[in-house]
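Entry 14. Two folds queued back to back today. First construct below, sequence then structure tokens.
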Amino acid sequence: MPPCPNGTPSGPAIALVTGASSGIGLAVAKALLGEGFTVYGTTRNPGNPVLDPGIRWLSFDGSSEAGISTFTHENRELL
């Protein structure tokens, strides 16, 4: 487990990376995986077979209030 910012462990290291299916988001998600984080990544198509299987994919369309509300409702236990 990576160290906490203050140097004391506080439980599992978990990250939520938006836009993790490509570009900078994907690079960040992979770097966090490499550091031992459990990574949740958002994408509009979590069933896409080319997505990194090490990332826990969540469906998210942040282009509308409805998409944000749906994401929040469906993933309440994670937030």
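Second construct, same run, same settings:
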Amino acid sequence: MTRFVQSTPAFPVRDLDASAAFYGRVCGHGVRARGDRFALLGRDGESLLLWLSDDEDWRGREGAGPVVRGAESFLAGTA
């Protein structure tokens, strides 16, 4: 059986600065690494990854809506 030693949850955010400030203020996480589209936060040996999810262009793309049927066959092929 696989044993996980550490796991880092990743959260999509619309505003990296505001989100990093929130987790710092509320949870005590400090910034360990920062890029243009991500921030790695940490506290007491634990990590939290924030990634910028600000792409709104998909709204205007043809067929970019949620999958409402046919997902079962796709998911069955990925197992």
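Quick look at the second one. The radius of gyration is 17 Å. The first strand starts at residue 10 and ends at 13.
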